[in-house]
Specification:
GMP Synthetase, Chain A, domain 3; Rossmann fold; globular; single chain; 20 strands; five-stranded parallel beta sheet; alpha/beta; 3 domains; about 30% helix
Length: about 525
């Protein structure tokens, strides 16, 4: 961002899927940070950014491989604190005179370590103040290689069963390395480690979401000028905050388009239009395009194919309405960082693609509209804070996420109008149950998926052969990791009974207890 007056903490990204979680932990400390892929951070660029401290992220490569990523050599002589995480620790060791042993995954004989582990302390360290108060600390490991010889000047401050150098430090130079991932929620005191790091680096902690709002508004005005913008609305938190931010930045230059693609939840189209027109006084076009979307999705069962069809049609619909708005040159989308990191590498970095998203990288070259994505570097909880700063009603801010492709990705296999109608009714019953039991605000996201199978059942004295469905409910903070919500058996039994009794076409109900990872939150 331009015109930043805050001290900068630079995160050099080596391709970890959770690099942006590091940024989240820093933002919680009101520290301004930027993520740059390692290949872009030359010695010259590093000098231009002039960070107050640097964090080296994890990554999927092996430092034992010839040509594997490295930090710029000038980093080690800048006299600033550096924290290396997982791969970041390993490249720090290799570059400063230590050694790393390859694990079985990278062709070596070392022992890997994945999942929860316990770290045992070895001596006091300012980076770990507040740790080990109750004994060994739980951390989250995800490494195939490990340090086998520490670099000169470093001492060991923590070990785990398969990482004898789990925590390393050269306190004279303020260089630190940890083999685990303190940014994820499975390292319970990880936030404290980042708090300690920014404190020892001397950050003032004066960067807030209010500051982000002001900078984002300035960037929108600079990008858009006096041109008009079309904003795609879904009724979810992301598009609501995007629209509010744009409206504050450019006022009547904004026109919102709500695309009803026939994949919405029960009564959602009517509710969304009323919500935006009544509460935000925005110019909203209601585009009823259900026949177009469902027609092109007919017969399609591959999830990537479905997503790409939906993405292409969204753009075509926006383009159609843009042609009727004189001066419209921009398309605004509520793209968030979890969408980006699962679809394409953030800032051009080396992370691995998980799945495509309809609003990420789906713009044809000749579309004719330029993108405005003011939330692209934010997580869902940060978007909600931004919504509060913009004065949005709590009913907007607190809504569960709803994906742009809608019910299409909750309907594995071929999509039919019959299956969508069944799914809408089942989902309405499920959400009603959650609200009645006072659980809605405890849950990050909840929905029903209709499964591409039929099962035999019995109702009364008759045989049924209907669809099975899966209930999904997860807890999360940022959408990058998630655990299933621990409903009581009484709740699940009551909900299953209601769905089977009230929704024609379903005779079996299951509950999905898969976490993320290894699963994703949505089914497709």
């Amino acid at each position: 961002m331009d015109n930043i007056t805050h001290d900068t903490l630079l995160i050099i990204d080596f391709g970890s899927q959770v690099t942006q979680l590091i940024a989240r932990r820093l933002r919680e400390q009101n520290v301004y940070c930027e993520i740059h892929p390692y290949q872009n951070v030359t010695d010259t660029v590093l000098a231009e950014i002039n960070p107050k401290a640097v964090i080296l992220s994890g990554g999927p490569d092996s430092v034992t491989r010839d040509g594997s990523p490295r930090a710029p050599e000038s980093l080690w002589t800048m006299g600033i604190p550096v924290l290396g995480i997982c791969y970041g620790q390993q490249t720090m060791m290799m570059q400063l005179g230590g050694l790393v042993e390859g694990g079985k995954i990278s062709g070596g004989g070392g022992t890997a370590e994945f999942g929860r582990a316990k770290v045992t302390p070895k001596g006091a360290l300012d980076l770990l103040d507040g740790w080990f108060t109750d004994g060994d600390e739980q951390v989250w490991m995800s490494h195939g290689d490990h340090v086998s010889k520490i670099a000169p000047g470093f001492e060991v401050h923590g070990t785990s069963p398969n990482a004898p150098y789990a925590v390393l430090a050269d306190t004279s130079r303020h260089f630190y390395g940890v083999q685990f991932h303190p940014e994820v929620h499975h390292t319970p005191r990880g936030a404290k480690l980042y708090e300690n790091f920014v404190k020892l680096a001397g950050f003032a902690g004066d960067w807030t979401m209010d500051a982000y709002k002001d900078i984002a508004i300035e960037k929108i005005r600079e990008q858009v000028g006096d041109k008009k913008v079309i904003c795609g609305l879904s009724g979810g938190v992301d598009s609501s905050v995007t629209a509010a931010l744009l409206h504050e930045a450019i006022g009547d230059q904004l026109t919102c388009v709500f695309v009803d693609h026939g994949l919405l939840r029960k009564d959602e189209g009517t509710d969304v239009i009323a919500m935006f027109r009544d509460n935000m006084n925005l110019q909203v076009i209601h585009a009823d395009e259900a026949d177009l979307f469902l027609g092109e999705l007919e017969g399609q069962s591959d999830p990537e194919t479905k997503r790409k069809i939906i993405g292409r049609l969204f753009i075509e619909v926006f383009q159609k309405y843009a042609n009727d708005i004189e001066g419209a040159e921009f398309l605004a989308q509520g793209t968030l960082y979890p969408d980006v990191i699962e679809s394409v590498s953030f800032s051009g970095g080396p992370s691995v693609t998980i799945k495509s998203h309809h609003n990420v990288g789906g713009l044809p070259e000749k579309m004719g509209l330029k993108l405005v994505e003011p939330l692209r570097e934010l997580f869902k909880d940060e978007v909600r804070v931004l919504g509060h700063e913009l004065g949005l009603p709590a009913s907007f801010i607190g809504r569960h996420p709803f994906p742009g492709p809608g019910l299409a990705i909750r309907c594995p296999g071929e999509i039919t109008r019959q299956k969508l109608d069944i799914l809408r009714e089942a989902d309405a019953v499920y959400i009603d149950q959650i609200r009645k039991h006072g659980l809605y605000d405890e849950i990050w996201q909840a929905f029903v998926a209709i499964l591409p199978v039929r099962t035999v059942g019995v109702m009364g004295d008759g045989r049924t052969y209907d669809f099975a469905c899966a209930l999904r409910a997860v807890t999360s903070v940022d959408g990058m990791t998630a655990d299933y919500y621990p409903f009581s058996h009484d709740f699940l039994g009551e909900t299953a009974t209601r769905i089977i009794n009230e929704v024609a076409g379903i005779n079996r109900v299951t509950y999905d207890i898969t976490s993320k990872p290894p699963g994703t939150i949505e089914w497709e």
